[in-house]
């Protein structure tokens, strides 16, 4: 089940060892101090930034409740079966844990911060370990396991044979020191994104190849509680990189970036010697040093959606703005990164698989905020956000465009591919 | 641009003792003396990027809070200097 | 634990008819998570306070219907807004139905000309101000829970605001509201009949009665609020002093100066400065001769703030205050809009870090009595800490409540290690709370300036504090809530229903 050590959660065993026996008891012991650190403060500053809470107003589905439940488990008041379903209601956006004073004001001081995202993942993993499955997630991960990629096209199968189809006509070599890793959504659904990225890299003269046998990064499986599967996929990918002499992985998807910089280090420790480069940061650098010079004016009135995994979870918000500022013709109505801590597309954490209606409400709320700015285009930097945002954007006549697509266009590149189905 | 390398993330800079209860690893970022977190609550694994992310976010948040309440902030130092003129 | 006998399936069906099936929650987790506020309480007694079910109404009409059903069946009702209060108002003492108003968070109107807005009481002030900011307006109700507490809870507690010396507190800022009485009847409470009047002399002035009752008289559902122009400028200088007495003198002079843009002043005592030195990046490196702090805050147009600010700077300087610089001043003030305590600031006597809950006593004390109250309160906490290594003295603040410097929200912050709290230490804590409240009353103060005084310990002293006024409270309670369904057990109001309870004497 969970692979969390006391040093991940900040707990030493409690003197009386409450919380039940077996895996559940172990879980409670691991999380008790983290849980009390929320329970004891009762701040709830997380609440109004939580995307799920904002649209449901249901306190059972708040980060506070997710922590308090662990305290109640320790007290013997709640069982896993009482609460497992509640933990579906999280996109893993990280707003709560960043906005929590225990992170924002003192997390660095104590080297102890609120870790709601990890807690939710661990609780989901515990549920799976104990045989409590969410039907949508179980099926999704079963299909992912069968096909080594997520079933992002619904009934249309995805497979290893087609994972490089997006690159048709681009003649990208396989292998090399630097490889471009393309997440499942971009590889099969929004193929315009990896095509844009690959062609921009080529334009800048950056040498790269594709992975020999790319599997799903494993991150989504970990988010939905299928930890063993996640680790198995991660092991395959690392072994594949090693076998091919890969030193550097270029990542275009924020979710992959999290997986490669947070999950893989936990899985592999010192053994993990691969460099991870976020493409959006690389492009901002290439613009700054002149390797890329966007010159084709794009007459759009835009705002930028800070992907949660970049802005909230990684503090990456400047590079995308540097890119957008360099594209001529744009009228940019920016909303600052702190205001956007309470924004989310609803597309993360497996929520759209298990509760699509909730994802839709969250993305509608996000698009409404864009509409109030009077823009015609919402730019994102996360393929997983772009599907729900596009669906919500259709109703408001707001076009949802990926930042890499936009940059490619301004570089005069004919991107090709599909922006979804 | 910040390339992620495992080897760079898990070795924090050397600590300097600031007071009996606080140390400093990164410039102007104080931390509790780790020996105070050994009996009841232990410190978490904390990659360097996370410390720096939190500090930067805190500053951004505080700036945001000023803007939220007022259009601009008047410098107390300026007013104090004017008293001396 | 089972659902109360009164909550039979037909009653549940009625409630589902009213608010919709998905808004009636009966599962254990939903109930446990609405039995908790930040105020410390022994965790092993959590289940004593768990409601039988939770409803999430979406309108005044739905709230009214729910209350009508509860009243007909004599089922206790507990209103819950943000659940961020420090006096247990939102915690059920008799199980029953929690009416959680968070879904009622619409902005119904922004009236730019009359400078008001009308909102559902489930809205949070920060979120409201994000919208009002686009109109150049602000609703300046600013508690420490500013980013999470809700307008309805501010009404239920008659909240206190950090910048109340400039803009008034919740009672001044809330013009009027719709209110569901314990019978289900809906009335409109405010000055006169209009929704947007700030002053009327017609009839009894009921607004104060229906604010600060801790949910014992009913549920506010929609409120009309007073708005101000968003301030052009802010000034928040912090000053260091070598001793408490000089800081005390300075804060008094700052508050009495009568500066129009003055929004508040705060006095930090020696214990508070020691506490900040543990962990606050601004204070860790301060020299040892810094023993007390004062900050003063001003909001308004820039020219006004600059003119008033010069006076504030001169007063502080002439009283021996050393300005801490723009960075510390601005950073510290910005952090005070969302400053609850942080659990890991708790320490054992040996100095080890432990996750402590925050308890905050919040008496209203006149300026002249601050020094003595401070010493007696610290002594109470010192004795407690001596007996139980699970309490920690986190120091004291005194904040101006008014623009004249008459009285101060006087706060002692006490860390409590809830993981270890047992019946014996809890009983000792309850006694300490009573002792703390007794000191406040002995010095002519009030037990609570902002949180309310209905927690165990202090609540026993409320009849003493209010005297004949408490008897009127009993009469009002009985008259409005004949069946004692509205948040029963709070404020000792059960005695309104005892056979010997007479009228006001």
From TrEMBL, chain A:
Residues 1-24 are annotated as: Disordered. InterPro entries: 4Fe4S_Fe-S-bd (IPR017896), 4Fe4S_Fe_S_CS (IPR017900), Cys_rich_dom (IPR004017), HdrC_iron-sulfur_subunit (IPR051460), Helical_ferredxn (IPR009051). Keywords: 4Fe-4S, Iron, Iron-sulfur, Metal-binding, Oxidoreductase. GO terms for molecular function: 4 iron, 4 sulfur cluster binding; metal ion binding; oxidoreductase activity. This is Uncharacterized protein. GO terms for cellular component: plasma membrane. PANTHER family: IRON-SULFUR-BINDING OXIDOREDUCTASE FADF-RELATED (PTHR43255:SF1), IRON-SULFUR-BINDING OXIDOREDUCTASE FADF-RELATED-RELATED (PTHR43255). It comes from Prauserella muralis.
UniProtKB/TrEMBL annotation, chain B:
It comes from the Bacteria. This is Uncharacterized protein.
From TrEMBL, chain C:
Pfam families: FAD-oxidase_C, FAD_binding_4. Keywords: FAD, Flavoprotein, Oxidoreductase, Transit peptide. Residues 47-230 form the FAD-binding PCMH-type domain. Its cofactor is FAD. Gene3D superfamilies: 3.30.465.10, Vanillyl-alcohol Oxidase, Chain A, domain 4. Its EC number is 1.1.2.4. SUPFAM superfamilies: FAD-binding/transporter-associated domain-like (SSF56176), FAD-linked oxidases, C-terminal domain (SSF55103). The keyword Transit peptide applies. It is an enzyme of class 1 (oxidoreductase). GO terms for molecular function: D-lactate dehydrogenase (cytochrome) activity; D-lactate dehydrogenase (NAD+) activity; FAD binding. One of its GO terms (biological process) is lactate catabolic process. Coiled coil: none annotated. Belongs to the FAD-binding oxidoreductase/transferase type 4 family. This is D-lactate dehydrogenase (cytochrome). It comes from Prauserella muralis.
